[in-house]
Amino acid sequence: MTPPRHAAVELDALVKRYGPRAAVDGISLRAERGAVTALLGPNGAGKTTTVEICEGYRRPDSGTVRVLGLDPVRDARELRPRVGVMPQSGGVPGTARAGEFLRLVAAFYAHPLDPAALLERLGLTAHARTPYRRLSGGQQQRLSLAAAVVGRPELVFLDEPTAGLDPQARHATWELVAGLRAAGAGVILTTHHMEEAERLSDQVVIVDQGRVVARGTPAELTGAERQLRFRARPGLGLDELLAALPVGSAAKESPAGHYLIEGDVQPELLATVTAWCASHGVLTEDLRIERRTLEDVFLELTGRELRP
Ligand SMILES: Nc1ncnc2c1ncn2[C@@H]1O[C@H](COP(=O)(O)OP(=O)(O)OP(=O)(O)O)[C@@H](O)[C@H]1O
Asked: What subcellular compartments does it reside in (predicted)?
């Protein structure tokens, strides 16, 4: 009988306090192998703390954490060759040349990827002999990503991997993540780019103030609902428009001149809105019907106020 395959990460009722404040306040989640799990949340929500507990860099105050079925602190030696970590910054000596560094990291693993091919994939071949500290911020980040994946990890933690990257590097990173997933690795991704999370992940977990506030596939979270948006002169009489729409519809103007109609968006509703606008001499611009985005859902759940 083959032994059971453990999930990539399993957290149960995880708590981590800094002084009286709980940075992580009872997070439970299960991230599968061969899947990308995005951890989303406003600044200070507890994402990095959660990931660092999984990486074995911090111990929780309570709750359990299993990484590939193992304890990240007690079983650190066994996990090290199986888990890749891309931190938000640092981790590479400033004088290390990009190519040498990646070959050195690769040498720690039994079946690494070809470092030269990986450099090429991430557009770093021309910088292979450049010391780390002379690389641009985006190039440094790409090298950290390469170092995190060169050992063919079963699980990889990517902390904001595309923050500050140019569009080309962002796409190369997305392809790399898709490749890891296809190769059966579990990927835990923290990001503030909702479009990135929507595009890459199988599962999204939204945390706020140390707690999970929503989880599901991007499609489950955004739902099947559509909404209608248009621009027009500010101050339209929305109460009057609303009276013409099916019961249960909602209409708002925010910011001035930008209108959003929510409800059962069917052809009749579109016809009613355009007819109402025509009868009021209103020319709409950028009229479009769209699904809610993950960013809409994220802002609804976590609010629009800036986090201290
Ligand atoms: N070593 C520490 N000592 C005290 N407080 C800490 C420490 N590390 C993190 N915190 C606090 O814990 C909370 C969660 O921080 P964390 O870095 O996990 O958030 P995050 O979701 O990763 O945020 P960001 O999106 O800004 O990276 C924050 O309020 C932070 O100030």
From this structure: Cell membrane
CA of 32 to the centre of ligand 1 (A): 25
Nearest residue by C-alpha to atom 2 in ligand 1: 18
Regarding an ipTM greater than 0.90, the answer is: yes
Say how far apart CA 178 and CA 297 lie, in whole Å: 24
Residue of 24, 47, 58 with the most ligand 1 atoms within 8 Å of its CB, for mutation: 47
Q: Is 296 left (phi over 0), alpha (psi -120 to 50) or beta?
A: alpha
Query: What is the distance between the alpha carbons of residues 106 and 147, in angstroms, rounded to a whole number?
Result: 8
- Same domain? For 156 and 65 the reply is yes
Sign for the CA dihedral angle at 225, 229, 235, 238 comes to negative
Atom of ligand 1 nearest to the CA of 52: 18
State the pLDDT at residue 88.
67
Ligand 1 within 6 A of 307 CB? no
Do residues 152 and 101 both lie within one domain? yes
The encoded tokens of residue 184 equal 């059966």
Looking at the structure of the chain, the number of domains it has is 2
